[in-house]
Model the fold of this input.
Amino acid sequence: MTRIAFIGLGNMGSGMAANQAKAGREVVAFDLSAEALARAKEQGMTPAASAGEAVKDVDVVITMLPAGQHVRDVYEQAILPNARKDALLIDCSTVDVDSARTVNRDASMQGFRAADAPVSGGTAAAQGGTLTFMVGCREQDFAEVEDALKPMAKAIIRAGDSGTGQAAKICNNMLLGISMIGTCEAFALAESLGLDAQKFFDIASKASGQCWSLTSYCPWPGPVPAAPSNRDYEGGFAAAMMLKDLKLAQEAADSSGAPTPLGGAAEALYEELVGRGFGGKDFSFILQMLRGRT
Ligand code: NAD
Done:
């Protein structure tokens, strides 16, 4: 049976690790939170006393941590010194491309196979096992990475070598942030022009303005019942998380010299929304800031 160490049992990691256990894999779990560890035990996982302890005798190590610094620290202090050299190391957190490449390079220098595999899909997809994984790894390691991720996934796509999974993730989320703001501006303008929001939705969703932010995640309450806009913008993908990803995209644009003027504008608008105290709201709540309702 595949033995998996899962480190980081937060909003995303708890559901992902549970799906590994449900698939019949033996999961050794670790998180700094005692509450998260107790929940993991209830779900059939073996709680470990430390990250170093968790990775000692497993085939696969999966990390789902907040940001680059956490991943670099856990790799350097716990995983690389303690894991078996034949273990496959997969980081699913969203981090900067440089951190992903650094940990992958350090791991390969010590003889490990490593992959960056950030996800698209929120906590519902993490719980439902329907995440999309964007993978950066060597071609010859991909089949094994795919097999390890399968119980948590709807789709697993190899983007290229080390770091390209993170590159795909931040490019996608920059596009999402920009398209959400564009959708919100269009609703706000429609309102000022006396155009009914539902009518605008009916027309734009069948016209060239159609996009995912409009038809699957509509920021105006009503037209898409499952969207967070109908639940007072609670749950979903937090504005603070979107800001984190937009910052990563801008950092990457600065270091690579790519021009991203709309990405920069989107970052500034989300910075303002989070600065006004709405970082916990779903990112589509930016509609209300643009309407002057914050
Ligand atoms: P979270 O803050 O809920 O969970 C992170 C967990 O890591 C926490 O339980 C924390 O205690 C634990 N942790 C921190 N440092 C640790 C350490 N040194 N050792 C062990 N555990 C440690 O965050 P989340 O929402 O689960 O997100 C995790 C990652 O997934 C982030 O990189 C995020 O950007 C990305 N992501 C989140 C979503 C989402 O909708 N929440 C969607 C896609 C991607």
Notes: The chain has a mean pLDDT of 97.
